[in-house]
Amino acid sequence: MHDIPVENGPLCVIPGSHKSNYFSPFKDDDPTAEPGMIPLPMKAGDAIIFTENVRHGGFPNLLDQPRKTLHLMFAPVWVASQSPVHWDERVYVSENAWARYSESQRRLLPPPSTGKDRFYGQLNRANVRLELENARLRDQLINLGAERDAALAELSRLKSGRAGQGERMAELAQSTERSPSLLSAIARPFRRGAH
After folding, report:
1. Is residue 22 part of a domain?
2. Structural domain tally of the chain?
3. SS3 for the chain, per residue?
4. pLDDT one-digit tens code per residue, 31-85
5. Structural domain of residue 152, as residue ranges?
């Protein structure tokens, strides 16, 4: 629509990040703080096509002029958007156009809106609240998962340490079969330590 230099806050991406599994939000909600994030300045008429799996955001707009962009997204209806933007109205699809769609096309798209969906805006606002609560709970689960992973790693470390002690005792037992006096000298410290 118009040129968007770096100072106007263009889209920014981490190249190749669609091959990674990012689940957490940006550190301090600042995409520019992400390692590897680069801006994509654009000229009027340019287009960028990318998968939502690419780690992306927007650089801050440092100019006194607004940044105007057009966003188009295509995804099956059952794929939930991670966008913070929620529309109060569905896209209008005429019933005649809907009738021409194949069954497989219909499975990818929402049913047609006839423009008579008077409660859709209210339902959408309720859905936004639910999505925000789901996001909060998802973040809690991620944090709990990290705590669980740390606890499991510590447990594994402790178990491997205990296994190492058992192996050492077995080695000592084998070596003492040849010398009973060595067994009694070695066993005393272990007995004192075991309570």
Report:
1. yes
2. 2
3. CCCECHHHCCEEECCCHHHCCCCCCCHHHCHHHCCCCEECCECCCCCCCCCCCCCEEECCCCCCCCCCCCCCCCCCCCCCCCCCCCCCCCCECCHHHHHHCCHHHHHHCCCCECCCCCCHHHHHHHHHHHHHHHHHHHHHHHHHHHHHHHHHHHHHHHHHHHHHHHHHHHHHHHHHCCCHHHHHHHHHHHHHHCC
4. 667 778 899 999 999 999 888 788 888 888 888 888 888 877 776 655 655 555 5
5. 126-193
